[in-house]
Amino acid sequence: MLVPPPASLSMVTTALLCSQGLISHGTRQDLRVSPKLYKPQQHDVRPVRVNVIDFSPFGEPVFLAGCSDGSIRLHQLTSECPLLQWNDSTEGHAVTCLRWSLTRPAVFLAQDETSCIYIWDLLESDLGPVAKQLISPDRLVAMTVVGEAEKTSGSFLALVLARASGSVDIQYLRRAWVAPVRDELRRLQRLLQEAL
């Protein structure tokens, strides 16, 4: 007869996984899933935590993971290792928020612990962010993306920024990061296939 491990052992295992940059994959129905873990590109054990995860809102089976060492990973649900990983995109500052664009499949935004926001457009560059903005002097504590995903023309995308003082700002993004690009989803799928 198998005896389940005590809850404290399970919590230790989970904490160990989180502190090594691993993401555990499971289901609520106790079905077998593959892969069981999502790992960083590095095979050595490193003291890094996965701080945030965001899944693509466009039906693509991919998600982003932002880590305490400033790395950002793009994972496919069916693969243990990331399709793409950026190690120095935030100059080593912990990633505290990640959000996919609601209007463009190849665009996402990241926030780091220094209140800096990074904009990524994978069709423009898959090497790093295409824009960076420091939010100061009032420290940024949270960020989210709002917009009109259902509109193909005339849509908007805005950042809602919560600051340490309690104020909330809304900043609209440039049209180039909002308006869908011709065949964008297909071009993104091709980029992801090439990354395999």
Automatic annotation (TrEMBL):
Record GO cellular component, one term: cytoplasmic dynein complex
Top-level taxonomic group: Eukaryota
One Gene Ontology MF term: dynein heavy chain binding
Record-level GO BP terms: intraciliary transport
InterPro entries: DYNC2I1, WD40/YVTN_repeat-like_dom_sf, WD40_repeat_dom_sf, WD40_rpt
Gene3D superfamilies: YVTN repeat-like/Quinoprotein amine dehydrogenase (2.130.10.10)
Transmembrane segments: none
Name listed for the protein in its UniProt record: WD repeat domain 60
